[in-house]
Amino acid sequence: MNPLGDVKLRTWTVRFMALLAADTQDQLAWLGERDVETKDVVEEVELLCRVSEGLAERGAFGPTDVDHLRAIGRRLGVMDAAARVGPWADALATDPAWDDIRSLSRTFLCARLGDWRQQLPRPVRP
Asked: Which of 38, 52, 71, 106 is a Cys-bridge partner for 21, taking CB atoms 3.0 to 4.6 Å apart?
């Protein structure tokens, strides 16, 4: 991968972690009327957690960053199949796993940036 690609992936990872770290009300506001499936969010996060290993090898993330992302990946890994089905907005409101992921994402951001409160990524247009 090239350095520009690494920067983009690192930036996307941090922005996505900011979305995961946000308060539930802010996440729901970010979602708005979008129909985002829980499985799509889980797959994106799992991909970012896997990619972080290569980014760390190339110096885009430090070992602590990777440790925090691995913890998020492990938490997602124990989420059962039923919890991955349906709209993410519903899962945010009912599945306590998202509280765990929120806490782990906040830990990642605090270690990486000094504060978990970050600007949320721009929503992708439907």
From this structure: 106
